[in-house]
Design goal:
The chain has helices at residues 19-30, 34-42, 47-53, 64-87, and strands at 13-16, 56-59. By secondary structure, it is mainly α. It is globular and about 50 Å long.
């Protein structure tokens, strides 16, 4: 999510990891320096705003298997919600 954007989605699922974990991951995986990563993050909405916009929040605080399970659960909830609203 970038600042100033407010797309009209039917549901928003936010996956959120600790800021320091995100910075470290981008530096490691993409070979970017910290200043670059922080400048990109500054152009995005804050974590608080992401949480405010979320219909479902998935915390990325442990291993990939746990994250996958939480993400799939959130997806199931969103699909159920959309299905229920379509039946009304």
């Amino acid at each position: 999510m970038e600042k100033g954007s407010d797309p009209d989605y039917r549901a928003v699922v936010v996956v959120l990891a600790r800021r320091e974990d995100r910075i470290a991951r981008v530096m490691r995986d993409r070979g970017k320096d910290r200043a670059y990563v922080e400048s990109v993050m500054a152009a995005q909405v804050s974590d608080l705003e992401r949480i405010r916009r979320a219909d479902r929040l998935v915390l990325n605080t442990s291993d990939r298997q746990a994250l996958t399970a939480r993400a799939l659960h959130a997806l199931d909830e969103v699909l159920d919600q959309l299905e229920d609203s379509a039946l009304r």
